[in-house]
What we know:
32% of the residues lie in helices and 28% in strands. By secondary structure, the chain is of the alpha+beta class. Keywords: Oxidoreductase.
Amino acid sequence: MEITDEEWTMVRRMVRRTIRSSLHCSIASLNPDGSPHVTPIGSFLPTEKGRGVYFDAFNAQLAANVDRDARVTIQAVDSGPLMWARSFLKGRFVSPPGLRLVGTVGAQRRSSEQEVERFHRLVGPLLRTRGGALLWRSLPLARDVAVDRVVPIWMGAMTPGVEAPRRQRADPTN
């Protein structure tokens, strides 16, 4: 199923709000033994529909995992306290509070000046702090992400219009 323009607009808005409220998205990959590995990535940027990029820095385990198995899930959650407070008071979210992007990661490559500039605009004043400069001033390497599916986060009755995930039921005879 192809990602719609409406879904991609939601992705772009949610990732921006996530980076601003949480300073990172989470990327889940698979360790060599098949166990999950979750990495906070503060530099994921959606680009054209179904595509994104993140800067490949400080994440040796994620890099090793995606070099071996490119499948990932990226989770973005808006952690803004006002959005959560309003939603709890209303008893519903106006839009899903987060989403998951299911896809694959490409090989490490040189980042473009435009990608770095776009990210620097996103983090804004944080880049002028000592920590922001240490983390994000130099971002020479990047990886492309191909997004196959966008899955809104379901939180029961608080997320009207979001489909509940299908649950796999274990066969009680096994």
